[in-house]
Specification:
By secondary structure, the chain is mainly alpha-helical. It contains 13 helices and 5 strands.
Amino acid sequence: MDIKLIGYERNTQVINGADTFNNLYERFVNYIDVQGKTLITYRQNLKPFFGFIGDRGITAPTRDDVRAYKDYLIASGKKAATIKGYMAVVKVFFSWLDDEGLYKNIAKRIKVPKASAEHTNDFLSTTQAAALLKTIKESHNISADRDFVLVNLMLSLGLRCVEVERANVGHLHSKDGATYLEIQGKGGKIVNKKIDESVAALVRNHIAERGNVSDDMPIFISTSNNSSEDGRIPAKSLSRLIKGYLVKAGINSTRITAHSLRHTSAMLKLRSCNGDLKATQEFLRHSSPTVTIRYLQELDAARDTSSTDVMSMIRNAGSHS
């Protein structure tokens, strides 16, 4: 991907085309100081833009080209959240180029579609959650025992798939007779959460059955070839695995995914604490209550009986006429 940013005159300096995208990208990520999954996300979100201008033979992109790229993403049918992610990285990239005196910030103040504040994933009912666990337990595949423990842990703590991927044996520890998991969350945030003891027992037994393990090994090992060097299950593979179990359990909807397990935990926590927003925010490890409020709104919607009340009044009126 040797796209060259050339032809831009800034003051008396002209870019001579010596920097390819790969060179610029490496300098860029060193500047923003990110690593791990975030680093991969930045590369993945920048790649489509350079593919877009490369396919069109654009070597000196302009503000109109950035707008055209945004329109291209919209026309391709991508979700607003995806477009927002792509454009956010493009804007940071050109801001850095401008700061470095390499290229004008042509993406400055270009508006992007707003992502919906509503969740795109539904939550499971307690009956559906129980059916999912039953389906996994009764599955006859080599990973069923592991997956049963894994899903129990996800539901009990509201874990994201990536947090399961990052969980090491050494992140599990005991204190005052209770078991805790050190969760490696978003943005490098680390939080210790107490685990339901029945679930903790499942996790400990699962680790014990594996035999000789060290603290830096993942709690859950992949049984396929699609794993990292140390054998941990990639978040995307885990997401597909859980989706397969959901479908097998008869819970087949585009709005029900692996992330729905976290939504389910959130809704059950809200119900158990009578809608206590702060308690639920702490349980989900949200940095802002604004995100948690969405779950409270969903709980209110689930409890709403307005439609039934209205129709009951109409039916009652009809029965007396």
